[in-house]
Write a sequence for this structure.
């Protein structure tokens, strides 16, 4: 670090003084002044980071008597993207004399995996932007002074691993839990590669369902005086989850969250609300103490489809349908549907039969909604699908791969849950449990023997030398004492 600051004292300060002089001469060029200062400071930061990485590597090289079975092979130049910019540093390749493995030990200490080109802070910046906008903008946001390609961003998104739900040691006590569910229809550009979508009689089969499920404890007003209502402790789950196995996996994930965060014994009922899709109804097979309730929004929608084609009779028929539903008199509902069909002039539209099928197939779930209406809060799934999924996946003319839809849906749910992008980036570097047969270099003995001499330069600014050097020694001591094994 001393070398970097020394060079900054020689050249960087000169650049700053020059930029300042230009600004004094022409105060109207404020942007140019700010850019000049920014670029100079960024260059200093990148130099410090690269030099620090190199000093850590030097420490490993110089303590050869404490490296046990590791010998030096060669020293290479490396580059890695950080949120500040692209950092260059030197790292040593070591060989294990016992098993012949080759490792860059400084990378191993810093948690940089082989072939890794991006630090966790840069990945966090990439994720933070990509979840909101596009792959291209995510690549531009990866660092202050550099960028990566759309393909790199896509590869990072496709390879993301998401953290499992953590168990809450203090489980919450509630009598009722609520689960709303719906899906977004997302356009596919391709399955695995361009041109592999099958073509049907009408058009390509180019859509995939992104499913959204969220658990919450009820609703409350955002402010004591009223106004917008918000969900209480919501938790979002999303992804493609295709087929019966996919549906089961999704609901098991939801049930796992409930078990980890709530005292299940004290829950009286879990209400699952949706539009009647089979994948939503299947949740009752996994979620204990659950009951499916037909979403009142869709019930209202289909009642309108029944009545609208009847013209002047629509108002009276609609009142009869609601009277039958609210009074749990399904005979009145059936009578109203038959009357409506007879009242429609000309050919009965397909939308009428779609609505009739929905009401008939969901009779039990519609009436259960009336039975438990004092405990229910309605369903806000349509709005949540729009906010959590559609605004990124389908509201714009985008084409996705199936993998991309699944991963972005999960990332959007992670965002909705208030996830920490830096923690997610760090989770990507979590290694599988090492094979017990593997030999890992042991660096514990270095704690007591570290002596790191820092070169001093006569040209270095005297006032900065003592402070920076002493701090550097302390930092390297912390580094040496923190090594417990590679």
């Amino acid at each position: 670090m001393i070398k970097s600051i020394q060079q900054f004292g020689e050249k960087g300060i000169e650049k700053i003084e020059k930029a300042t002089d230009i600004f004094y001469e022409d105060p109207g060029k404020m942007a140019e002044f700010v850019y000049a200062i920014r670029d100079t400071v960024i260059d200093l930061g990148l130099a410090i980071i690269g030099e620090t990485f190199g000093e850590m590597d030097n420490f490993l090289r110089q303590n050869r008597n404490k490296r046990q079975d590791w010998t030096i092979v060669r020293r290479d130049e490396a580059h890695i993207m950080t949120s500040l910019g692209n950092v260059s540093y030197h790292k040593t390749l070591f060989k294990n004399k016992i098993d012949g493995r080759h490792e860059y030990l400084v990378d191993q200490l810093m948690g940089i995996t082989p072939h890794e080109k991006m630090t966790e802070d840069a990945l966090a910046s990439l994720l933070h932007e990509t979840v909101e906008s596009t792959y291209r903008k995510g690549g531009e946001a990866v660092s202050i002074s550099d960028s990566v390609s759309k393909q790199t961003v896509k590869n990072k998104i496709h390879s993301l691993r998401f953290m499992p739900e953590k168990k809450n040691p203090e489980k919450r006590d509630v009598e009722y839990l609520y689960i709303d569910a719906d899906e977004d229809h997302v356009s596919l550009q391709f399955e695995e590669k361009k041109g592999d979508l099958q073509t049907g009689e009408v058009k390509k089969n180019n859509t995939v369902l992104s499913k959204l499920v969220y658990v919450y404890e009820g609703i409350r007003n955002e402010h004591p005086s009223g106004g917008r209502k918000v969900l209480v402790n919501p938790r979002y789950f999303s992804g493609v989850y295709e087929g019966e196995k996919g549906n089961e996996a999704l609901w098991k994930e939801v049930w796992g969250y409930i078990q980890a965060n709530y005292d299940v014994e004290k829950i009286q009922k879990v209400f699952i609300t949706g539009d009647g899709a089979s994948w939503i109804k299947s949740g009752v097979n996994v979620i204990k103490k659950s009951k499916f309730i037909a979403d009142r929004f869709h019930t209202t929608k289909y009642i309108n489809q029944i009545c609208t084609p009847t013209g002047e009779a629509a108002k009276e028929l609609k009142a009869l349908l609601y009277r039958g539903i609210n009074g749990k008199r399904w005979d009145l509902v059936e009578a109203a549907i038959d009357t409506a069909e007879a009242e429609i002039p000309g050919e009965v539209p397909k939308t009428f039969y779609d609505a009739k099928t929905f009401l008939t197939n969901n009779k039990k779930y519609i009436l259960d909604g009336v039975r438990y209406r004092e405990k229910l809060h309605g369903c806000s799934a349509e709005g949540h699908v729009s906010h959590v999924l559609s605004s990124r996946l389908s509201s714009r003319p985008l084409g996705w791969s199936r993998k991309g839809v699944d991963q972005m849906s999960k990332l959007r749910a992670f965002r909705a849950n208030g996830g920490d992008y830096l923690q997610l980036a760090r989770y990507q570097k979590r290694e599988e449990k090492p094979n017990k047969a593997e030999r890992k270099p042991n660096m514990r003995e270095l704690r007591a023997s570290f002596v790191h001499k820092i070169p001093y330069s006569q040209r270095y600014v005297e006032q900065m030398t003592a402070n920076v050097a002493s701090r550097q020694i302390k930092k390297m001591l912390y580094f040496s004492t923190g090594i417990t094994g590679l």
